[in-house]
Amino acid sequence: MDAAFTTFLSVFLSEMGDRTQILVAVLALRYHKNYAIIAGLACATLLNCALSAIFGSVIDSWISDRSVQLFAGLSYMLAGAAMLFWRRNVDPLLSWKTPAFLTAFLGLFILEFADKSQFIIAAQSARAPFWEMAAVGGFVGIMAASVPAVILRDRLARAVPLKPIRWLSGGLLLIWGFVLAT
Question: Long-range contacts made by residues 62-69, C-beta under 8 angstroms, separation at least 24?
Answer without folding.
Answer: 68/123, 68/126, 68/127, 69/127, 69/180, 69/181
